[in-house]
Amino acid sequence: MAEARTGERDPEAVSQFVEGFAAQLVEAGMQRMPARVFAALLASDSGALTSAELGEQLQVSPAAVSGAVRYLAQQHMVGREREPGSRRERYRVHSNQWYEALTNRDAVIKRWEGALRAGVDSLGSATPAGRRLSETLAFFEFVDGEVAAMMERWRAHRETLFGDDA
Asked: How far apart are alpha carbons 135 and 67 in whole angstroms?
């Protein structure tokens, strides 16, 4: 991001980053407003903004921010915190948001594996549909193991890069 001479960031450069990164997230399947809110939180120095700050920066209504934050919280990508002495909430992007998002996907994969096992049992493993479900189940079991191993490697790599208190 461009830095102004005073050490403050150029709001136009910040906006371009937010909209550009949000567009990439939308292209990958995220809804537009959660993508914009997430990118704005990532781009903030504190990693936390109020609903009013997000609405002002993104030029959207409080309802749009609320819906986006609800989605992002369900995906374990942001958290809510109260401002001390205030009823206002701040929304904070987790420092390990990608780890949290992938870990959350692990629970989804486990549920899919269970449903696929039941499908194989119901359809019979020797039928064409049963074989197809068996292959899909084997794929998700493989992915599940690979993601778990990858997350262990990431934790070690992150500690090397950023220390154990990152």
From this structure: 37
Per-residue pLDDT of the chain (166 residues; tens, 9 = 90+): 444 444 578 889 999 999 999 999 999 999 999 999 999 999 999 899 999 999 999 999 999 999 999 999 988 889 998 877 878 889 999 777 777 777 777 788 889 999 999 999 999 999 999 999 999 999 999 998 898 898 889 889 999 998 876 5
What are 87's two structure tokens? 């009823």
11-93: CATH, from 3.40.50.150, 3.40.50.300, 2.30.30.40, 1.10.10.10: 1.10.10.10
pTM of the prediction? Answer: 0.71
Tell me, what amino acid is at 115? A
